[in-house]
Amino acid sequence: MNFMHALTSAWNERNSLLCVGLDPDPARLPEHLKGQGDAILHFCRAIVDATADLVCCFKPQIAYFSACRAEEQLEELVAHIHSRHPGVPVILDAKRGDIGSTAEQYAIEAFERYQADAVTINPYLGRDSVAPYLEYRDKGVILLCRTSNPGGSDLQFLDVGGEKLYERLARLVSDEWNESGQCGLVVGATFPREIARVRELTGNMPLLVPGIGAQGGDIEATVRAGCNGDGNGLMINSSRAILYAGCDEDYTAAARTVARETRDAINRHRPSTSVAASP
What we know:
This protein is α/β, with parallel strands linked by helices. It has helices at about 5-15, 40-50, 60-65, 70-85, 100-115, 125-135, 155, 165-175, 190-200, 220-225, 240-245, 250-265, and strands spanning about 20, 55-60, 90-95, 120, 140-145, 160, 165, 185, 205-210, 235-240. Helix 2 crosses helix 12.
């Protein structure tokens, strides 16, 4: 799967900018799943099946799986998405960042072991730390730029020759690193002005936008700031608000309801788009 082609198709054919984050917390799983050896896989797989037609991509966060020694369940989950819901891209949220030789191993982990279609990485070690991921030309490489956490400003707002560091990074990725058109940037929904600035600097580059739902980001402000001229260009992530919408055996129905409501709320503010009928 070519990530950028699949993402563009999902935006258009599914009429959705919603990304569902898969952050399975064992303490918050429904009671009937707790204690099962494959509870994380069962939970995430059910969420995926309940929401796949409503999303443009899924984003499993690797730390939630690794902390529970559930890496094999993550492999099975990605394989399930690819087999049951072909065309829906999977972004491995890993935020890796290391020197070139180690980055090569992280790239193998993301793209060969887990078979992810894209990966999030930390670019602050420079171009040589990003290059191993860019060698996989059909994969997406999504770099942290302006993150949604309050402490992000400690570094990302530093002045660098008359511009903020996150602005310099956005230009660097757009102008020099994105030779194969496979890059995207992470920009938090909690900072709509910065979303607009990154969009101004990068043209149509895809933006992964965490921070709506439990983190309080404003959907309307996010969409108006970040959509490109086609009404696309965003992967707006919601994790906890969808995953834990229900806490009993009907948790998948609750997750689907919130995912549909979120997708439709996003679509109401998209330019040049008609809102799809809610299934």
